[in-house]
Amino acid sequence: MTQSSFYLDYFGLNERPFTLVPDPEFLYWSPQHRRAYAVLEFGVLSRAPITLLTGEIGSGKTTLLQNLLAQIDEDVTIGLVSNAQGNRGELLQWVLNALDVPIDADATYVQGFQKLQDFLITEYAQGRRVVLVFDEAQNISREGLEELRMLTNINSNKDELVQLILVGQPELRDMVRHPSMSQIAQRVSASFHLNRMDLETTQGYIGHRMKLAGGTGEEFTPEACHLIHDVTGGVPRLVNQICDFALLYCWSEESGKTVTACMVQSVVDDGVFFYQQRIEKEAQA
User: Fold this and answer.
1) Does residue 213 belong to any structural domain of this protein?
2) Exposure of 236 by Cβ count < 10 A (0-12 exposed, 13-18 middle, 19+ buried)?
3) Where is the AAA+ ATPase domain (predicted)?
4) Last residue of a domain, one of 194, 219, 237
């Protein structure tokens, strides 16, 4: 079965509107996403030592980050590290790999740090800035965060040679706020936390993605959107998951091209929406 024979033709869509893969082209600029992006831009342009962006799983952090990286100036060298873990020295290796800085496998930590420092000084001499981006940074240990903080101490006169952007789930914000992490907290010059979408934003989000995919934006009834928001808690990735199934159910029933609350409820009742139980537990907590 080809994708075109799926529900796409039925709704007159050019592509699936609710995939789980982050796609900057489908970014919905809600007020808080605009503010979050402004903070990211400010962090880069103001040469903030550390910029912090946190939010729930699937809240759009990675999509915002991808949009930022696509727009960044050519005089900025970017090192992107995803899901970095490990102890002292291993994190430095992640950084060197992200910046394409070669180093011998048996090099000591001091030699690796010197390699990084030499690279940063060379980039600075050529009029370039270096920004290290850590996605899923909640996986970095407190010791690792402290090691990253030390990188921001590398400077030339009054200019810092490297900036950090830390992106992660809410526990990253909690880690940075811990009293034992006061030194790294003091280096955070720009920060933003993405909350879940409210009902109005959820409705706009669903309509926006349907329009971008070639639809009218009115395929989901207000009642369906309301139920989707209740079930997902307004987390974009979860909204994508249940909307994708709702379109599938609507197509399979061939009862019209409007997704109703009853169809959404059928998705929930059939248990194909795996996050439902977790959302209910969080709501009761």
Assistant:
1) yes
2) buried
3) 47-190
4) 194
d(CA 59, CA 167): 12
Taking the C-alpha atoms of residue 138 and residue 97, their distance in angstroms, rounded to an integer, is 20
* Residue that has been written with the tokens 């600029």 in this structure: 29
The answer to whether position 117 is within a domain reads: yes
CB 196 within 8 A of CB 57: no
Residue 166 tokens read as: 């830390």
pTM, to two decimals: 0.82
The pLDDT tens digits for 178-215 are: 999 999 999 999 999 999 899 999 999 999 999 999 99
pLDDT at 90: 82
DSSP letters spanning 216-266: -S-SB-HHHHHHHHHHHTT-HHHHHHHHHHHHHHHHHHTS-S-B-HHHHHH
CA distances (Å), origin 258, targets 156, 173, 207, 213, 252: 61, 40, 12, 16, 12
pLDDT tens digits, one per residue of 221-278: 999 999 999 999 998 889 999 999 999 999 988 878 999 999 999 999 988 765 544 4
Residue 234, φ and ψ in degrees, nearest 5 = 80, 20
User: With contact defined as beta carbons under 8 Å apart, do 109 and 139 qualify?
Assistant: no
Long-range contacts formed by 121-127: CB under 8 A, 24+ apart: 121/156, 121/161, 123/77, 123/161, 124/156, 124/159, 124/161, 127/75
Number of domains in the chain: 2
82 plus 176 within the same structural domain = yes
Helix axes 90-98, 142-151, angle to 10 degrees: 50
Query: Helix, strand or coil for residue 85?
Result: coil
